[in-house]
Amino acid sequence: MTQFGQREAWIRELLAEAGQACLDDTGVPPTEIEHLYVANMASGEFEGQTGVPNALAHDLSCLPAYAQRVDQTSASGGAGIYAAWQSVASGASGMTLLVGGEKMTHRSTAETTDVIASLTHPVEYKHGVTLPSFAGLTARRYLETTDAPRESLARVAVKNHRNGVDNPHAQFRTEITVEDVLASPIVADPLRLYDFCPITDGAAALLFCPVEVAAEYADDYAVVAGIGGATDTHVVHERAEPTTMNAVVESGREAYGMAGYGPEDVDVAELHDMFTILEFLQMEGLGFAEERRAWEAVEEGRTEREGELPTNTSGGLKSKGHPLGASGVAQGYEIYKQILGEAGPRQVDADVGLACNVGGFGNCVTTTIVEAGA
Amino acid sequence: MTQFGQREAWIRELLAEAGQACLDDTGVPPTEIEHLYVANMASGEFEGQTGVPNALAHDLSCLPAYAQRVDQTSASGGAGIYAAWQSVASGASGMTLLVGGEKMTHRSTAETTDVIASLTHPVEYKHGVTLPSFAGLTARRYLETTDAPRESLARVAVKNHRNGVDNPHAQFRTEITVEDVLASPIVADPLRLYDFCPITDGAAALLFCPVEVAAEYADDYAVVAGIGGATDTHVVHERAEPTTMNAVVESGREAYGMAGYGPEDVDVAELHDMFTILEFLQMEGLGFAEERRAWEAVEEGRTEREGELPTNTSGGLKSKGHPLGASGVAQGYEIYKQILGEAGPRQVDADVGLACNVGGFGNCVTTTIVEAGA
């Protein structure tokens, strides 16, 4: 993955940087690439540039590789993992490169937020209910219907910032305190600025091939053990219970079913902490905590690096940054590094990892379970 | 497929109309849909609406089906066929709905053309070389390096308009003459207005499942016998010979290889006639005519409905219209109808059909070969 943060490079350059690094790292010649998937939400809206998969195939000298864009809004990276996996599992491709990326910081926050808000339903958008608003409403309901203290949400941000300090690719490598979170400006009551991920430029890449081919290139590799995706209502207010993310539950159910095991066997997780409240809801939806009890796990330190289920060891979207199309791929990259024991100072003891990538406010979700190969 | 043309409906409504028609036509309940792919180039740029796969899953009551957007610019529909096929062939989905669509006519021609031109490389775009310009330059080279008369290009448009008269979904159901083409305004010399497809709103849908499942729902169905995709240089002027479309050749080679037969076994073809010259280049790239001899086949009537390889029986993009994300899916729809003997007055004698969907100026291409099942 590239450095995440405010970058001078344009989307084409970011994608090429991550893609080239992946080819260099794996030693796979570009001419071996048969399919190329680009996970990206909005290069056309942000930069007036479309056709980036074609451009990337050209830039990486992968021609005549088949190249296509995968968009699932902020979950485009997870959808890219699913598409790349399908290309290999179907036999369509023997070697697939996935590169996810987004270039956002050159636009104003208002412009960027409005592009993202275009994924909401007009009946909600016209009332000004954007994704941060849903997060605020849902956080309030969570706090009102559980014994969770407000501080427990802040602790998600504090933990993820602490992890991010040890990630050289992270946008923010600074620790913050619960007091910092609670003193930051209100964005969508009760959530404050430090409950939200930043706007970020960056890209990340992963290479997919049949296991027997992976063994030709490397002694160590990771295997997709389970994967699944699901969708929830486009109109968020039609959901029976907003604190239950149905698409998280369903995508997890599919991924666990394919893997043949459950949440108790997962050693490390990357969850989509676009807003602090989302980390709670995914922990519950994926079975890492009982319904309405995730806050206890965070309070007790169970999701810290030293805990039983280290969560967002990369720093998460909160500290690492959230270049939309890159985020799901970067989650996969962190899990890959952890499984292979290459996570440096962030390293935890892990044989099985899980990544959950969330688009919209749980509108579309992909969950991937990865384990060590060979 | 929906009526193509200038429609009052927005992209969500067009997609839902085609998707619902497909479910009604096949008798498959929406709850059976496991994966939903939306082929669409630019709903965000054209309409400020993203996240349309999520919206469509909601509108069609397919929840919690996995939903994702496939973008390959003007070849998004063909890429959607490839994605849908991979989802079934990989075992990820037992029933996949593909809906392709685009809503364009509410924007000015200048705005629409500029969105499409955003897929070109900046080094060419900044000189004003948009897709129609490439078509003009390439047509001139073709005419200068072959014995083809200018009229042979016009005959592609005349043939496709004649076919479109018998397609109730086509945007233009009017015959035109060679004289009409040659008298129409110059767009990119030597090509004139009637050498170009129109700007169109519309959507089309196809349903994919394993063959044994198809047999449960229908006596007659079509089988994907071969499929392949490829990419050519992003910078068009870097190509050794602009009249040879490498991505057409390569995607065809893959599709024929998978099918186990060649162009001589194809009975009917839908080619991407965004510009008349493209029909020649695809005929040659796919082996339907020798290099630089496609014009002869057209002059001799071999691609007419009564000829040996009826081409663009639907009316093609020229007369049926070209709603970007819908076009590749609508090509598949026409081949499906022809193979099943349901093409009404357009019906030709066909057991095997081929669809070639082209993005950019041959930048990315998907070729699909379909044959009758059961």
Write the layout of secondary structure elements.
Two copies of one chain form a homodimer.
Chain A: H1 11-26, E1 35-39, H2 43-47, H3 52-59, E2 66-71, H4 76-89, E3 96-102, H5 109-117, H6 122-125, H7 131-145, H8 150-165, H9 178-183, E4 186-188, E5 191-192, E6 202-208, H10 211-217, E7 222-231, H11 246-259, E8 268-270, H12 276-285, H13 294-299, H14 316-320, H15 324-339, E9 352-359, E10 364-372
Parallel strand pairs in A: 1-2, 1-3, 8-9
Antiparallel strand pairs in A: 3-6, 4-5, 7-10, 9-10
Helix pairs in contact in A: 1-3, 4-15, 8-12
Strand order of the largest sheet of chain A: 2-1-3-6
Which fold does the CATH topology of the domain at 128-194 and 220-372 in chain A refer to?
Peroxisomal Thiolase, Chain A, domain 1
The CATH architecture designation of the domain at 128-194 and 220-372 in chain A is 3-Layer(aba) Sandwich
Discrete helix count of chain A: 15
**What's the CATH H-level superfamily name of the domain at 128-194 and 220-372 in chain A?**
Thiolase/Chalcone synthase
Q: Tell me which protein chains meet in the greatest interface and how many residues each side has.
A: A-B, 61 and 61 residues
What is the N-to-C order of secondary-structure elements of chain A (H for helix, E for strand)? HEHHEHEHHHHHEEEHEHEHHHHEE
Kindly list the characteristics that best describe this protein.
374 residues; alpha/beta; homodimer; 10 strands; Peroxisomal Thiolase, Chain A, domain 1; 16% strand; 15 helices; four-stranded mixed β-sheet
What does this structure look like?
The structure is a homodimer of 374-residue chains. The first copy, chain A, is of the alpha/beta class and 374 residues long. Chain A has a domain at 128-194 and 220-372: Peroxisomal Thiolase, Chain A, domain 1. Helices cover 40% and strands 16% of the residues of chain A. Chain A has helices at residues 11-26, 43-47, 52-59, 76-89, 109-117, 122-125, 131-145, 150-165, 178-183, 211-217, 246-259, 276-285, 294-299, 316-320, 324-339, and strands at residues 35-39, 66-71, 96-102, 186-188, 191-192, 202-208, 222-231, 268-270, 352-359, 364-372. Chain A has a 4-stranded mixed beta sheet, with helices on both faces. A 4-stranded mixed beta sheet of chain A has the order 7-10-9-8. A two-stranded antiparallel sheet of chain A has the order 4-5. In chain A, a hairpin with a 4-residue loop joins strand 9 (352-359) and strand 10. In chain A, helix 1 (11-26) crosses helix 3, helix 4 packs across helix 15 (324-339) and helix 8 crosses helix 12. The first copy, chain A, is globular and about 55 Å long. The two termini of chain A are 24 Å apart. At the A-B interface, helix 3, strand 2, helix 4, strand 7 and helix 11 of A face helix 3, strand 2, helix 4, strand 7 and helix 11 of B.
